[in-house]
Fold this protein.
Amino acid sequence: MLLVPLAAAALTAAAQDPPKAKKLYCWNDPDSGRTCSDALPPDRVNSARDEFSVNSGARVGAVDAAMTAEQRADAAAAAIQARADQAAADTRKRTEQAMLLSYASEDDLKRVFTERTTLVDNSVDTARYNVASMRAALITKLQQAGDAELSGRQVDAKLAQDIGQRHAELVRQQRLLNSFEQQRAQLSSEVQDTLQRYRTLKGAAQPAG
């Protein structure tokens, strides 16, 4: 039978295989600092580390720390955003020629932004009004609390709660206002960039002479 010779040959080949090179693992421990060992502890399997040859001491590799669930989610979101940005760039290229065909003048192109500009301007105006109203109401409540303290009276719990709520709402309205103002600035920049691009394309499309 051939089984015995084959098994003997396999054992001989295994015995002749060179032993696996030993490594030295080094990682940064938050408590003990830089730590090295020829055996990687189970709790360091997902940690960032450098690997060195035990025989030569040369660095033979490195392993990055395993990402947390939050980091994986951030990476996925970044990848989605990158694909969206690329898609937007591709769409922009495809629509440049359509821009020349669709708009005979800059005024025609500006009308495209009129509705968006109006909506954003209305949002800014509304947010500014809300911020001013909330600020005035909060100042009134704070004056009431100040008068009570100056008179030696304890500030009413309901008044204190009302002050806290109005302050939180004021902060929220201020954030909304900042967001709308940023949108307005970005829109203005977009309009100018689009017009500049239109002029460039229009100039390139004009026949020489």
